């Protein structure tokens, strides 16, 4: 079967339509919740962060799938209200992927920058907007880019095929190890797991607490530790590749959110698109993270 954007969106819509309850009729609401969720996936996979530009593009390119979509559909407002639904559907698609049963997981975190200039940060701090990002954002340091940033940090547990298993959006000052323990406590699994991370996930107390949760932490050797350690570079490159997919194709770094609720919904939409694409690729016998055919 030919993999394309239409097939991915039809798969998402059918799953969402089967799972979501039927809402009472509303003359002002031209789109169903299932259609809004499907449009969130379309926006993520098409890499269009701007809501206004996406709706205008979708009316022309996806009009045969969404005949009721207009520039006044209120798509962006309803997306923010459906954040819980989007996260639930992400878990549903992830559970249909072979990676949901994998006992080897990759742990890492990435910055979610919300402002670049000092003036923007100052204006955000003075915002009277309910649920403003400034209520939770802070300054953090990104070691991979050797620079500070203002925003939040996204922590993930992923299967090697790219299936999202557990996620958390936290302050950049939160301890990676403490957040990892929280993810390990709630991740779906059927026995002991092996978690591969970077050098930041070091510490005897952390490894002991992870062992209490039936998780073995595997990481590269630090310079102050004896021996040669394990050669994990090829496996560590896998999580970097997954994050690059989220940043390059799914525009994770250009989320465009202005509120915490909006940020949550936009990030969840991107990983729902990833989970749906990975699951569909498995069903079609394709490499799991081949997304180019869905945006070509």
Describe the structure concisely for a colleague.
The protein has helices spanning 5-19, 33-46, 51-61, 75-81, 83-95, 118-125, 176-186, 204-212, 233-248, 260-284, 292-295, and strands at 104-115, 138-142, 147-158, 164-170, 193-196, 215-218.
Structure notes:
- This protein has 296 residues and is α/β, with parallel strands linked by helices.
- The protein has a domain at 101-256: 2-Layer Sandwich (Nucleotidyltransferase, domain 5), CATH 3.30.420.10.
- The chain is built from eleven helices and six strands.
- It has helices at residues 5-19, 33-46, 51-61, 75-81, 83-95, 118-125, 176-186, 204-212, 233-248, 260-284, 292-295; strands at 104-115, 138-142, 147-158, 164-170, 193-196, 215-218.
- Strands 1, 2, 3, 4, 5 and 6 form a six-stranded mixed sheet that branches.
- Helix 1 runs antiparallel to helix 2 (33-46) and helix 5 packs parallel to helix 10 (260-284).
- The protein is globular and about 65 Å long.
Keywords:
Nucleotidyltransferase, domain 5; 15% strand; globular; 296 residues; six-stranded mixed sheet; alpha/beta; 11 helices
């Amino acid at each position: 079967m030919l993999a394309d954007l239409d097939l991915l969106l039809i798969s998402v819509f059918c799953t969402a339509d089967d799972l979501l309850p039927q809402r009472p009729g509303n003359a002002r609401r031209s789109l169903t919740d299932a259609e809004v969720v499907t449009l969130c996936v379309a926006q993520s996979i098409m890499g269009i962060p701007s809501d206004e530009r996406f709706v205008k593009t979708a009316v022309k390119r996806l009009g045969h799938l969404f005949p009721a979509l207009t520039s006044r559909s209120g798509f962006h407002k309803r997306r923010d209200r459906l954040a819980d639904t989007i996260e639930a559907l992400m878990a549903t698609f992830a559970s249909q992927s072979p990676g949901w049963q994998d006992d080897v997981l990759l742990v890492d975190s990435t910055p979610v920058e919300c402002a670049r200039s000092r003036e923007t940060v100052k204006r955000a701090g003075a915002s009277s907007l309910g649920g403003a990002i400034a209520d939770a954002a802070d300054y953090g340091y990104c070691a991979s880019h050797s620079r500070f940033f203002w925003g939040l940090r996204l922590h993930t547990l992923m299967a090697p095929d790219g299936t999202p298993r557990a996620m958390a959006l936290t302050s950049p000052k939160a301890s990676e190890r403490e957040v990892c323990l929280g993810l390990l406590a709630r991740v779906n699994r059927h026995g002991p797991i092996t978690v591969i991370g970077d050098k930041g996930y070091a510490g005897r107390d952390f490894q002991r607490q992870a062992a209490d949760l039936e998780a073995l932490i595997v990481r590269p050797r630090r310079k102050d530790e004896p021996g040669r350690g394990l050669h994990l570079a090829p496996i560590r490159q896998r999580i970097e590749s997954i994050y690059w997919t989220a940043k390059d194709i799914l525009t994770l770094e250009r989320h465009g959110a202005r509120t915490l609720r909006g940020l949550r919904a936009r990030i969840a939409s991107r990983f729902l698109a990833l989970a749906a694409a990975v699951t569909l690729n498995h069903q079609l016998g394709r490499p799991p993270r081949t997304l180019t055919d869905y945006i070509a």
